Amino acid sequence: MDAPRQGIALFSAIGLLIATLVIIQLWLLAAALDALLGGHVAVVLPAAVASMLLFLANGGLLLLVRGFDRRVRTAGADGAAGSGVATSGQGSGEPNGPS
What we know:
mainly alpha
């Protein structure tokens, strides 16, 4: 499987995972607020810790995506530079090197 197709699959999967974690985090906030308003103060600290862990997981996933994107862009730039054909925006479409 080539790198751009891997990138699309990876970004889609991680995007879905991030969306799921954010929904869980919102549910956790609602549950903690409901417990707090109901007088169950002991629930607030564990909910805050769980929310922080979800936040860190989302941050880690974001760093993973950024690192993979950087590798894909670097590999794509290296492959285009060595092909001998101008890429879009770099010239008139004629070969860069000798034929």
